[in-house]
From TrEMBL:
PANTHER family: TRANSPOSASE (PTHR35004:SF6), TRANSPOSASE RV3428C-RELATED (PTHR35004)
Protein name: Transposase
Length: 110
């Protein structure tokens, strides 16, 4: 839908509407992409490590979406089931309970 004022403006003028140029937007990350690509090819895909490195070079921003494109998707791996005799092995699930005072200090308890 077009605004009636816009339509009236072009009807009353002697020229056709100009198409907006589609200029490529520049990103804060543009000047750091070459460095990031080099580090990713070396095997570093940890966003925190890469962000710390380019922040030391003067970057201010985020990089997760950029790095995500370069990360290899993990392949599904088969799991070998390990069966033992009763009493030979114990298993337990860990869960975060919260912060509690332990020895006079607040500590995370799992």
């Amino acid at each position: 839908m077009f605004d009636p004022k816009t339509i009236r403006k072009y009807i009353n003028s002697n020229e056709l509407p100009k198409k907006k140029s589609s200029q490529k937007r520049h990103s804060k990350l543009d000047s750091y992409k070459e460095y990031l690509e080099k580090r990713i090819k070396e095997g570093t895909t940890n966003c925190e490590v890469l962000l710390d490195e380019i922040m030391a070079l003067g970057y201010e921003g985020k990089i997760r979406d950029f790095v995500r494109l370069y990360r290899a998707r993990p392949k599904k791996q088969a799991t070998i089931r390990c069966e033992t005799t009763p009493g030979k092995q114990a298993q337990m699930d860990w869960e975060h309970i919260g912060k509690f005072e332990v020895d006079g200090e607040l500590k995370e308890v799992y």
